[in-house]
Amino acid sequence: MRWRADPTTWLLSAALMVLFTMGNAFAEENGKRLALVVGMSNYVLAGTLPNAARDAEAFDAFLKGQGFETNLVLNADRRGLAGALSEFSRKIGPDDTALFYYAGHGMQLHGENFLVGTDAKLESEFDVPAETVALSEIIGAMEKRARISMVFLDACRNNPLAERLTREVEGATRGAATRGLAPIETQSGGTLVAFAAAPGQVAADGTDGHSPFTRALIANLSGAGLEVGTAFKRVVRDVRKETQGKQQPQILSSLSLEFYFGPETATPPTPVVQTPAVQTTVPQTVTVQPALTVPAIDPETLEAEKDFKKALKIGTARIWHFFVEKHRTGEYADLGRQALAQIEPAAMRNEAHLPQAVEAQLLPGKDQRRNIQLALASRGFAAGTADGVFGGQTRDAIKRFQSTNQQPASGFITENTAAALGIKVNARAEGIYSATKARRYDVANLEGLETDQTVLRALTCLRHFETVYGVFGGHLYVAVHTGTILAVYARGIAGGCGAHLASISSPEENAFVASLFNSDPSFFETGYDPRGNVSYKMGPWIGLTQDPQGKEPKGGWHWDNGAPMTYTKWFQDMPNEDKKGDDIGMYYAHRNGRSDTKSLYVDTWDDMGPSDGTAGLILEFE
């Protein structure tokens, strides 16, 4: 059996859970039913997908039978696909139901989903906008125009173009270019998006000319008296049965109206009435109201659902770790673990988050461990001699204390266990907390998951900026992408947020700070300087200043926060006082002659002046 979609195809498609928000209102259809059905089989460079076109043709015929006006598009290049979408969107009116079906290659780049035209070559990430169509634009156009929008995606795996792009895009191992699709968000209350498979699964291509997903859609969506949400449950059942549980379709729904592909009422079998002399057949039509049973949901499940949606929007390994630690059981916990497995290498996940590794981070010294033992004993949990060594008796005491406090009884100290004991711990893990590409973070989506209050305070202040952030040496560092900014304004942002431009005191600290911004080209101003015949790459401002009375070019340099200069990493022959007033430090490097600086890693400094601008700054929160 060949497979279509890939394990990451529904990366975090956990998003794609299933929240059938069915209201009590019925979708009274005064408008038209419109559909664009796309099947892509014959790719120029990505191989042939014979079933994709056949699936599209079959689904098109099915929709026509349900009263849809359809446009069937097969094997379109990017221009043809865009044209069909444009024509489709112009037809949609405010009372209409709009449906988009797609079978073919899909991919994601930097968290954005794209559908691939048959002529795509995708030789670099810069080709993606010109050779694909963004899924978000399709959904957005439908949501703006239609009363109800439905999208059915049967994308496929084995996409050599996406695989090549994954190898070539810098930083792709952190998810820059990925086969399959990323999580999405709908913007209206009348949208449904259905996916052929769940997180970590692939979608079977089928052995009889059609995929199990499309076959199940056709078999179940038009059932009499079946609202689309209920009908989709039958799609899930049939696909699971045909694939022996290997594949489970998923749905994301914000429909506040009910929609029926088939009749809203069901006609039961004709009853037979017996009499002594004659057998009479009496046809009867019984109106069956659609079931609107709302299952009782306990508060813990509601909170898990709320946190799950937040974690999806943030999407970092750190936040998924907090989610699975907070919600250890249930459907959302399983989905959270699947999402985490997609974005964090297993070796890193297994080593860094073993209970003993977490405990070692929280309690790095014997004094802190001794305090734990004393706190346990004071609460009646005998932990043996308070010697800072956690032997069997201490482990047993920790387990009993955790059980008493409704915590998982691991026998290892966690942040929650330490807090319950009243012990302050070294709760700040070191490393990059955010995504490696700068983006804006809504603090509302971090609350309840992120435990570092300094992070929440910093991101609240910087909510209008794209950031990359992490912790080193107990301090929070934030690379802030601002667009071109002068040093005076960079210092103003720092002061307004209760921080200072970063001071750097060791090679390790400098390496960490440089890692915050080197994965994202938006942090750099680049160009060619004919005076020195160099191609330069200017990075963020740091808190490095030269006293006016300092002897040029190297005298009188100090950090804005008053820290002594114990370490420097000037670029070769810098500082050089290129022009009078070059008394402020930033990250900088260059290459001789006219040269491409894209691959130039910048972890060195240069002196610049008050009229110079660069694309960002590094803040330090102590």
Key structural traits:
622 residues; alpha+beta; 9-stranded mixed sheet; 5-stranded antiparallel sheet; 19 helices; 22% strand; flat
Q: How are the secondary structure elements laid out?
A:
Elements (H helix, E strand, L loop, with lengths): L2 E2 L20 E2 L6 E7 L10 H16 L3 E6 L3 H14 L5 E13 L2 E5 L11 H4 E3 H11 L2 E9 L3 H9 L8 E3 L11 E5 L7 E2 L7 H9 L7 H15 L7 E4 L3 E2 L13 E3 L4 E3 L17 H16 L2 H10 L4 H13 L2 H7 L2 H8 L3 H13 L13 H13 L10 H7 L9 E2 L10 H4 L6 H9 L4 E7 L2 E12 H10 L3 E2 L5 H11 L7 E5 L4 E13 L10 E3 L24 E9 L12 E4 L4 E9 L1
Parallel strand pairs: 2-13, 3-4, 3-5, 5-8, 8-10
Antiparallel strand pairs: 1-11, 5-6, 5-9, 6-7, 10-12, 14-15, 16-17, 17-18, 18-25, 19-25, 20-21, 21-22, 21-23, 23-24
Describe the fold and architecture.
The protein has 622 residues and is α+β, with helices and mostly antiparallel strands. 32% of the residues lie in helices and 22% in strands. Strands 3, 4, 5, 6, 7, 8, 9, 10 and 12 form a nine-stranded mixed sheet that branches. Strands 16-17-18-25-19 form a five-stranded antiparallel sheet, sandwiched between helices. Strands 20, 21, 22, 23 and 24 form a five-stranded antiparallel sheet that branches. Strand 14 and strand 15 form a beta hairpin. Helix 1 packs parallel to helix 6 and helix 6 packs across helix 7. The longest helix has 16 residues. The radius of gyration is 30 Å and the shape is flat.
